[in-house]
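hey so i finally got around to running the thing on that chain from the lab meeting. sorry it took forever, my laptop kept dying and i had to restart like 3 times. anyway pasting the input first so we r on the same page abt which one it is
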Amino acid sequence: MNKILFIGIIVIISFLYSCNNIPDPTPSTIANDTIDISKALNKFESVNLSTITTKIEYIQLQTDSNCFFGRIYDKHKSIKFSKNRIFISDGHKLLSFNHHGEFMAQYGRKGKGPSEFTEIERFAIIEDKEQIAILSNGVQKLLFFDFQGNHTRNLKIDFWPTDLTYFNNKLIFITPKGRRHRSNYYTLSVMTLEGDLQKQLIFNENEKEVEKKEKLKFGAFNHHYVLNDTLYYWEYLYDIIWKISGNFRAIPSDLIFYSNDKFPFESFLESSPIELNLITSRQYVKNREHLNTNRYMFFYINNKSRLNKIYYDKKNKESYSLQFRDKITNRLKFSFTNDIDGGLPFWPHGVISENKVFRLIYGYELKQYLNLKKKKNEIQLHYPVLEKIANNAKIDDNPILMIVTLKE
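ok and heres what got predicted. didnt touch it at all, straight out
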């Protein structure tokens, strides 16, 4: 009996090991460093915004019938800054504004014509050529426009990326797990502007082996960004930050460690009973996104039934999970307390440059917040910029960009 029990245990362990032993995406994924934010998961702190910055600016985006847009999802991917313009997509239209918030141009529209798209999956700024490339997977093409909004050409693609960027004179398409069979199990495809495939990066051998037997579910939590003229790529589950050099070589740079209770790899199998939804996510810890700057990193973590917004200081290698009860609204906030200008609490939605981040706010929110402060006699200083924005705010106005310059 004991022998049979022993054999049974060995069989179970072997099965679990085969399911959970996830090979690295490539044979050489040993990261240079580990960014460990696990200690911050269960330790909440109230942190002043002045800890990371001394300066806030505001850009009110123009509102009229030509430039009104709807709700913006994935703000870190849908709002991008060039040298002189701000590009914003709500998935149905793409608009640009100058750095004063004045409307400049619209790029294409929904439809089936040569200069039209079914939806905007993502877009890339081609700064040196003053062009915009819009990825529309519904028609499997890229649409190119100049900065003034004139359609210039299209480019057909024969696979299903979910994102793209422009780096070192090349287009880079990003294909997530569940779709990588269409890109030979590579994550990044490097192409010329004419559509010639030059190189593919980050080979996922483990997924190729798995999909010989069973398909993987679609999973698209990933992020790319340029920092100090270097492209970086990160993807949920593997949690390696890849560094893409100027000659398009992918090097594992950092490993993000936050918990051992991540979604198991087998949850991405189509036959898995584990659903990747809100109910099941309460059993696991999920790094939904992170933002990276010269000194600070910002993490948005679903920690089982809790939310963690963690900032990591590269200088002292310490991490802090933000939480405070706002005495103005009497609500819990997972943000920095705004002790700079007395406005809304701050958590970055995206990165502008190596030392600038932004949050999207609405004028009516700011107006309500400042009015509550006045009723509670909490306004101690006079902030004419904030008061002017609040006084002129209407509920149907386009949002405002709250821009924070970070300490070095």
